[in-house]
Specification:
There is one protein chain. By secondary structure, this protein is mainly α. It has two domains: about 1-80, no CATH class; about 85-135. It is about 70% helix and about 0% strand. It is rod-shaped and about 125 Å long. The protein starts with a helix and ends in a 7-residue tail after the last helix.
């Protein structure tokens, strides 16, 4: 009985979210159905059908009134980023983060390549400096005659 009470509470909360147009687990567009209420509540397939009283007294009247006022053209026009479900927002955020990570990895790899090239160039210049100093030292040797 306790589990069914929780499920019934979840169904009622899901119905309220769907009617208010702020669902968390399903798309806010489209007509209201028992399956949509069930999915919004996060319950298993057709679990809503175990609650006949809820369907007859609460869900069906709400579905009929919602669908009577539902205009698909108006719904399409009003649907924008604000109406995205939490899951869709999370997916978009994750996609953006993955893209940024890839960009940062590419930048890191490019900088590593540039760093190696600069180290090679510095080593080459240091060696050339050493050679020139040696050459200068050989030329600047003063012979002391007796």
């Amino acid at each position: 009985m306790r589990k069914s009470g929780k499920a019934l509470a979840r169904l009622r909360a899901a119905l309220e979210r769907l009617i208010s147009g702020k669902p968390q687990n399903v798309s806010p567009s489209g007509k209201l159905t028992l399956n949509k209420i069930n999915n919004e509540a996060g319950l298993g397939n057709s679990y809503i059908h175990k609650f006949k009283d809820f369907i007859e007294n609460e869900a069906n009247p709400a579905i009929e009134s919602f669908n009577a006022n539902y205009d698909p053209v108006k719904a399409k026009l009003s649907q924008n980023k604000q109406n995205l479900t939490e899951k869709e927002k999370h997916k978009a955020r994750m996609k953006k983060e993955v893209k940024l990570k890839e960009q940062y990895r590419q930048e890191r790899d490019d900088l590593k390549t540039i760093n190696k090239e600069l180290e090679t160039q510095i080593s080459s210049l240091m060696f050339r400096l050493y050679e020139l100093q040696e050459q200068l030292n050989v030329q600047n040797v003063v012979k002391i005659s007796q």
